[in-house]
Design goal:
Layout lengths: L1 E9 L2 E8 L6 E10 L5 H4 L8 E2 L3 E9 L11 E4 L10 E5 L3 E3 L11 H14 L6 E5 L3 H10 L6 E5 L3 H9 L4 E3 L6 H8 L7 E4 L6 H8 L6 E4 L12 H7 L2 E4 L8 H14 L8 E5 L4 H9 L7 E4 L2
Parallel strand pairs: 9-10, 9-12, 10-11, 12-13, 13-14, 15-16
Antiparallel strand pairs: 1-2, 1-4, 3-5, 3-7, 3-16, 5-6, 6-8
């Protein structure tokens, strides 16, 4: 099967090339319906990771069009999302190994079924260990932060506090289940958090901005005696000096909740797709920009220099 595929040929330059794609044993061939743009891929875009020419794209969903030898439990025409055999999401077609994808419910739109980032959300939530009566704090209301809020919303927590410097993102956070919102540019965030929690602060804090300077603020939001901080975002560069004395004085737990934290990312994916299928995770209001495959260069430029209304971009081949 011939397929167009996007390759990063040098930093800040993407070319569309034609490749042959066939499923190997234990793989399915997928017609890609969508692939999300991920901030982590800016590391590749800036030449900090990988070696050009390299394909990109890992947040995909699509339709099965062919089965490799030995594949069972899936049929041509099934709609799936998951992990590909390589970063090949910005393509017309890709291959995925059995066990690394799961079926979509009829109620889920294929072009909105971004299973991979939701698997990362499950990893973050499990590492944060939300417990009954906890105060949870989500710092940064980008797509990942908003999906964390969607997953945490309900009656388990005593309060779910969203922190961001943009009011329109805080409005989305409330829409998705945050009980309180804080804008550090217009109020003293720590003082407001103490007011909301009656001095308790956050039992767990999810840091989702990717801004190194915000890490010290996240420490301030966490309660003493084993408050938990989950580092969700990818960071491109070394951050500024960090005051570890506060971490030691408070007795905090800091967890790097990237895939290496998970015991099994396929298991996180299975759980994520179950919740996606039942409507826990939503894309309405989160996906703001859509690009065809032949405009993937423009898509990455928008990812790097986000327009004021940008939240989540996807490529739709």
């Amino acid at each position: 099967m011939k397929s167009r595929r996007a390759f990063l040929v040098e930093p800040h330059k993407i070319e569309i090339r034609e490749v042959e794609v066939e499923p190997g044993p234990g793989e399915v061939l997928v017609k890609v319906a969508v692939c999300g743009l991920c901030n982590w891929e800016l590391n590749h875009w800036h030449g900090l990771l990988g070696r050009p020419p390299q394909p990109l794209g890992h947040e995909w969903a699509g339709e099965v069009v062919a089965l490799g030898e030995g594949v069972s439990g899936v049929a041509v025409g099934d709609r799936i999302t998951g992990f590909a055999s390589g970063q090949h999401g910005f393509s017309d077609y890709l291959c995925a190994a059995q066990g690394n994808f799961f079926p979509l419910a009829p109620t889920v739109k294929t072009e909105e079924a971004l299973g991979e980032p939701l698997a990362c959300i499950i990893n973050v939530l499990r590492a944060s260990e939300p417990q009954a009566g906890d105060f949870g704090v989500v710092v940064g209301c980008g797509p990942m932060g908003l999906w964390c809020i969607q997953g945490l919303a309900g009656h388990l927590l005593a309060g779910l506090i969203a922190v961001d410097v943009l009011d329109w993102k805080l409005d989305l956070a409330r829409r998705f289940g945050a009980t309180h919102t804080i804008n550090p540019q217009t109020e003293d965030a720590e003082a407001r958090l103490r007011e909301i929690t009656d001095g308790h602060l956050g039992d767990f804090v999810i840091e989702g901005t990717g801004v190194p300077a915000v890490l010290q603020q996240a420490v301030a939001y966490a309660r003493p005696q084993q408050g938990r901080i989950s580092l969700m975002s990818a960071h491109e560069r070394v951050g500024p000096a960090f005051d570890w004395r506060v971490v030691q004085d408070k007795g905090l737990q800091i967890r790097g909740t990237h895939p290496s934290w998970a015991l099994s990312m396929p298991e996180e994916l299975r759980r994520a797709v179950l919740l996606l299928n039942q409507g826990t995770f939503r894309m309405d209001g989160v996906i703001t920009h859509r690009f065809p495959l032949d405009r993937v260069q423009e898509a990455f430029e928008a990812l790097e220099h986000k327009p004021p209304d940008y939240l989540k971009g996807v490529v739709i081949p």
